[in-house]
Specification:
eight-stranded mixed sheet; globular; 3 domains; 19 helices; six-stranded parallel sheet
Length: 562
């Protein structure tokens, strides 16, 4: 088959297809006898599409799913032996069959990206976990994906993008989403607000549109201001956060304002917050350290913010809730030698007004040096000082370097480590932000100096996943040449090599991402460097520093496509 014929999505569709499915925890339960299973190719119904899978990105979460089996959060309660999961969520698709009632909306040959975090009828139905994924040759797209709560979870694709660019738009969307504003700048309209504390220093200087305000142990001044600012108030002196959450919030509170609190109050208050809740602290004196559950910051988008100003509104201000990297600041990407860290690095290096200094750390030197070599020229071109170091190889060097630079404006925590996260606040300068890109299981807490959040305006934020809008934005940036999603690819393979690709992820064999091309069935897992030696046409089509490009992908398809 020629590449042109392949692109059009025309031709016969086989009756069966190869698929990688998970039957339980452990690599021995991934596929059958170290090979994909054979299953019937779906036939699209009137309201369905049949899509060919063109590229699959291998994600660290794929390896995690295999390791944990039914202990993985989205598999809990599922008997994988009886109801196996077809994995794969970083995907590039081409429509090959259109159901009768979808004709006119979609066409054979149409290329699509996919946002895997699907919500259908208010239930999460993530692709590759709850819905069958794309680690296969063909994929059926039904109502959950095409008529989800947010509309269709497929995205149009520009012809200028490679299949790999499209597949990697999903992890790139997670990176891009880490910087978009997501914290509320006022208590939730229609939500539940609890305000507690007897200080009369602070001014309640904004209207409260909560459905209900629970007021505990306030000064007479604050009570008077609250009566003028809120519609419905319950006076409940002596109540704790847990009691308010249970009695008035069905288990959670949307917003909490604490005036001159004790550190112990903050611990219980954070536990009582709903997802995306805010904890605003007003304090003039020292609060001290509090044990903060950082998993809630990452997975539940909890915001903790504070002010010593009289104005409580100041705690909710945009200045106190920065999410984008500081202009011309110092950025630390902690654990940045792997694929996700490199995405953050590439984004920072290509920002119009990004950091002036970027420190990238990694424990192992192989990945660190590969990252440094890949991005050194771009950093020099942009006038950015790029520093790569291994804290394991040079103990104490990170702290000494950050001290020389006057602290970090931004710290990105790329790998899940409680001990390493706990050391990060000390590296921030005033106004600095720690972004917890990697999540730890619930219940993992670190001691946070609350005074720094209040007096120095420091922040600890976190994000998890991405949205349709995030992925659409990444595809637009890629089409405009602002980012190169496929530039971080280190190796490619055919579908049959999926198991070897997972082993490579577990072994940290490559510094960049791995892409599977189902159409190139017999292609073994091969590094870009080895591929360029084997195929001169591929070598001639690589980008700067030997990076993967659309031209290189096309050259490979012409060489290998069956």
């Amino acid at each position: 088959m020629s590449l042109d014929h392949y692109r059009k999505g025309e031709g016969s569709i086989p009756e069966t297809m190869r698929s990688w499915v998970l039957f339980g925890a452990g690599m021995e339960n991934f596929g059958r006898d170290d090979a994909p299973i054979i299953e019937d190719t779906p036939s699209a119904g009137a309201d369905q599409l049949l899509a060919r899978v063109d590229a699959i990105g291998i994600c660290a979460s794929d390896a995690k799913m295999i390791r944990l089996g039914d202990e993985y959060p989205l598999f809990r309660g599922r008997d994988l032996a009886a109801n196996p999961a077809r994995m794969g969520h970083e995907l590039a698709l081409t429509v090959v069959r259109v159901g009768d009632r979808l004709k006119g909306q979609y066409q054979v040959g149409q290329r699509l990206g996919v946002q895997p975090d699907v919500y259908y009828q208010s239930k999460r139905s993530a692709i590759g976990m709850i819905l069958p994924g794309g680690m296969t040759q063909y994929m059926e797209l039904g109502a959950e994906i095409l008529q989800g709560d947010d509309g269709a979870y497929v995205l149009p694709v520009a012809d200028a993008l490679s299949y790999a660019d499209v597949a990697l738009s999903e992890p790139w969307a997670c990176v891009d989403a880490a910087y978009r504003p997501f914290r509320r700048t006022r208590p939730l309209p229609g939500g539940l607000l609890w305000i507690n504390g007897g200080s009369d220093w602070f001014e309640l200087d904004f209207d409260l549109e909560a459905r209900l305000v629970i007021a505990s142990d306030l000064s007479e001044k604050t009570k008077a201001q609250l009566r003028a600012r809120a519609q419905r108030i319950v006076w409940a002196d002596g109540m704790t956060a847990e009691q308010v959450a249970q009695e008035y919030g069905d288990g959670g509170i949307d917003d909490i304002i604490l005036l001159e609190p004790e550190a112990e109050q903050l611990v219980s208050a954070q536990r009582a917050l709903n997802q995306r809740g805010t904890l605003s602290i007003g304090a003039r004196g020292s609060v001290g350290a509090a044990e903060i559950d950082i998993s809630r910051i990452h997975y539940d988008f909890i915001a903790i913010m504070g002010t010593s100003d009289q104005s409580i509104a100041a705690a909710y201000s945009a200045e106190q809730n920065r999410s984008e990297l500081a202009r011309r600041g110092t950025l630390l990407i902690h654990g940045g030698g792997g694929p996700m860290g490199q995405m953050h690095l590439q984004r920072a290096l290509t920002m119009p007004e990004g950091p002036s200094v970027i420190i990238v750390t990694n424990r192992g030197l192989k990945r660190l040096r590969a990252c440094e070599e890949r991005y050194a020229d771009l950093a020099a071109e942009r006038g950015i000082r790029l520093i790569a170091l291994s804290p394991r190889q040079a103990p104490g060097r990170l702290e000494a370097l950050v001290n020389e630079l006057g602290g970090c404006d931004d710290i990105l925590m790329i790998f899940p480590s409680l001990a390493e996260t706990e050391r990060l606040p000390a590296l921030l300068k005033a106004g600095g932000v720690i972004n917890l890109f990697a999540g730890l299981p619930p219940g993992n807490a670190i001691a946070v100096d609350i005074d720094r959040l209040i007096s120095d305006g420091c922040q600890i934020i976190g994000t998890s996943g991405s949205s349709l809008a995030d992925q659409a934005r990444v595809l637009q940036k890629a089409a405009a040449g602002q980012i190169a999603p496929a530039g971080i690819i280190s190796a490619v393979a055919g579908l049959d090599a999926a198991k070897e690709a997972i082993h490579a992820v577990n072994e940290r064999r490559y510094s960049g991402k791995i892409i599977l091309y189902p159409a190139l069935a017999g292609l073994p897992l091969t590094s870009i460097a080895a591929l360029s030696q084997r195929f001169p046409t591929v070598r001639q089509s690589l980008g700067a520093e030997g990076s993967w490009t659309k031209a290189a992908e096309e050259a490979l398809f012409r060489e290998v496509l069956d």
